[in-house]
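Example 3.
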Amino acid sequence: MSYCRIIVLAATLVAVGSARADEALDALKQQLQLLQQQVQQLQQKVAELESAKATAPAAVGDLTASASPKEVRSPSAKTWSPADPIPLGRSGNAYINLSLVGDTTFGWSTTPDVQRIEGAHHDPSQRGFTLQGAELTLDGAVDPYFTALATIPLVLEPGGETVVEIEEAWVQTTSLPWNLQVKAGQMFANFGRHNQLHAHSWDFVDQPIVITRLLGGDGLRNPGAQLSWLAPLPIFTELSLGVFNSDHSSFRGDYGHAHGAEEGEPHYSKLHGGVPMDRSLRGPQDLLYVPRLAVSFDLSETQTILLGASAAVGPNNSGPNAGTQIFGADLYWKWRPVNAQQGFPFVSWQTEFLFRRYEAAERVHPLDDGEVVLPSETLKDWGLYSQVLWGFKRGWVAGLRGEYVSGNDAMFRSELRLDRSRVSPNLTFYPTEFSKIRLQYNYDHIQQWGDEHSIWLQVEFLLGAHAAHKF
Amino acid sequence: MKSTAIIMALSLTVSAQAKLNVVATLPDLAALAREIGGDQVEVACIGKPGEDPHFIQAKPSNIVLLNRADVLIENGLELEIGWLPALLEQSRNYKIRAGAPGWILASVNVPLLEIPTGPVTRAMGDVHPYGNPHFLLDPERGKMAAKNIAEGFKRVAPQFAAEFDANLAKLEKRIDAALAEAQKILAPYRGAKVVSYHKSLTYFEERFGLMEIGNIEPKPGIPPSPSHITALIGQMKQDDVKLILTEAWHELRTPQLLALKTGAKVVVLPTQVGSSADATDYPSVCVAMAKAIAKAMKQ
């Protein structure tokens, strides 16, 4: 725009010759001065109006009574110069908080098939570079009665294809009586601690194995509704019950990620070996129920503990009436001195234990040349992880995680039920709350498979609104 | 510790009919609320003396406090944005939601400093887009916060309006007296050049005539880099800076290094009620701060 003007101006100047050019320049200068004066006058008026609005008469009286006018420097009293930018809007006035989190990992593993050991959807998925996700989050108050949030990650698959997900999209009440709160939509089930975290809030590069195995590569999340109640007790006691339509791996759906299935393979469940049954919703017995109880109290001024017990009960796809029950217990303890600088130093300890009882019905396992019938049996899996984080210096966190998972013997030998243990030390540097750099080593020991070593360097950035941290 | 908390909570429920349950985010706001509310309120505070107001640990026990509150007093201007919204959401208490009668914003009508005029980006560090939120360090502005609190109390419990007004008037007189005392203490040092750790002392310096020539943080919330410290040492020597002001939650290593290199004194200011033995209530905070500065200047 201004570029065009300059060209036009230059052309005009050349055309009218140097004598006329001086006149034209003078005229332009005069015009500019006039415009500048007008702008200044307008700006002054705006400033006067703004200051009249910003300081109530009472407040002004208070100040002038005991302070010199110089000390009550109202921001609008500052003289404006044309070089100052004019603010058109600022954060906080918007109806939507918008943020984008990007996670990139670079690393190497002794196994070329990284997805066999890193099963969750936001884990590193290949040697070299992985874009673990670019996650768009929108949230805000809908009206005086509801708040809402949507998280939409874009994931770059190893094949180069970009996949868009709706990780969460829910609405939550703010004004129900009797300490009740209702949430509805697509959401992470309120089960344990890790399941409710988005990938960028993880303390390690990857998801704990027991969570991936029992709650799934994307976590336990489905469309549904949840009612929660804060008990009127002196210590924090929250009860919640979620009800979901279940297409989940431990329940009705098949194992592995929905868009990770390979074509052409004989179609059977990688968990129980049978041909998965398409279970439709016949009644309340086919829904997934997730109750949870969480209790928290302060051990001292600097130490807080949170204990939780969760369950998830619903149908599975091995037979028309087969069901799955998952039980979990979690503990989170944190120490932080009162005079911490930007939250440092701190020490936290988090442990989750999960047990799954999977009723596998009598089912047909397809072979290349025929089929075999597997008897009904109960698959029992359990696992735990325990992690300690030490924020030893402003911006620096050292972490150590230990994990173990195991499953009982069954007719179908599933790779997803092998005994496995993993030890992961890591070091994270947070230049600010909005960026982090993390280095992690994984030592993996898998039954009938052997040892695998992996090293990952993760870089994360956050643009836009930063949601407040929950405990 | 735990049992006293339980007993306190139980006794709160017993006397809940009689008194207003007030929760304040910061110790200074709690202190103001106690004086204005008098016998009609029971005040609890989320932040502790010596705790950085930007980074208060959000605990589930705070959710319980907020759940029972009739009134919430917050500083505002995004000072509490890192931890309060999540607590409020989980508190399920619509009486204290933003805009509800039980929600008191202490910063209403307070003239602010350092309102960014241009576009704000995070490349500038943690700049508060509405202006510097640490206005409680200026007693004049503290009186405005006190007035806002009294207005809020009258809105929720109009039957005690006269009592709140009387308490407010008494408090304002005491703040005026304290301000006069602090000004007397600091009168010899008007115009003294200082360096502060974070940009949190602007209102105090403005009120008492101290000249801040730089911050230890190169940008708000950004840790000091060696090059910034080197430049700051040069600046301090050039301007003959005698004082390095900081608060309880900042590390002391860098201020001490600066002191060693320049001969200036490090003063950890008692900027909140309860952060030193003589900062017992809101009016005495400015006097305690003035005394700490005067003591360092005399050394």
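Residues 7-16 of chain B have pLDDT under 50 and may be disordered. Chain B touches chain A through 69 residues (CB under 8 Å).
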